[in-house]
Amino acid sequence: MGTHMTDSTEPQDALPTPVTQAGRDGLAALIARPRTAVIGLDFDGTLAPIVADPEQARAHPDAVPALAALAPKVASIAVVTGRPAGVAVRYGGFAGVPGLEHLVVLGHYGAERWDAVSGTVSAPAPHPGVAAVRAELPGFLDRIGAWRGTWIEEKGRAVAVHTRRAEDPQAAFEALRGPLAELATRHGLIVEPGRLVLELRPPGMDKGVALLEYVREIGAESVVYGGDDLGDLPAFAAVDKLRSDGVPGLLVCSGSSEVTELAARADLVVDGPAGVVRLLRALADQLERPA
Question: What is the pTM of this model?
């Protein structure tokens, strides 16, 4: 369904046309009534390029200016991420930026929330299974003979095992899926697969739940969601649900060769974080024009 959109066929500042009617309707609704629109965006792979070490991930250098240009013209921009909210704010450079007063970060799949107006994070108590898995995981990986090069990322309310640095990253990823799923189940957690990463986290929250709850809280009349990874599929499903309820929506894939499922579901595919930035900038420019 999705078709790759690149700058070779469009002027740099042009707003690309979604390849589906539903996507075109979603974009038209946003342009017609921007003050009632919510724009949801994943962080890693969407606003920030994927890097070998997630601690080195930073928003695309043009992302914050593009967000600051667009945010005052819409109801809200919500960054929906599996990262802790505070980490996404820091790596994104979102704090204290004029124009970003309409931005929120829904971290840990919505379990945490940072609001640009208050500059504070609100969050419930952590799930006890995360601490148990965190303690057990290093010895567990040793016992099952995990590939050299796999490593553990501490995410506060979740723990992730990365295979991107392994000798055969995909083989390591596939070999670990079953054992880590058993470990997660034992401690009341679930495994969220991503781009060469397996995240162990509490059940009950995903990007779809987070986006749906936020859109309904705001009372949005249209929604855009942009993502790049398997963890974004629930958010795509949430937009489909909102469409069926009469709320127009636009699904954007930040394209990569690693995950094709999102591209197949998207109304619009852009060229990674740089393409997302161009889309945000084009939207901001479009909303400058008189109706």
Answer: 0.79
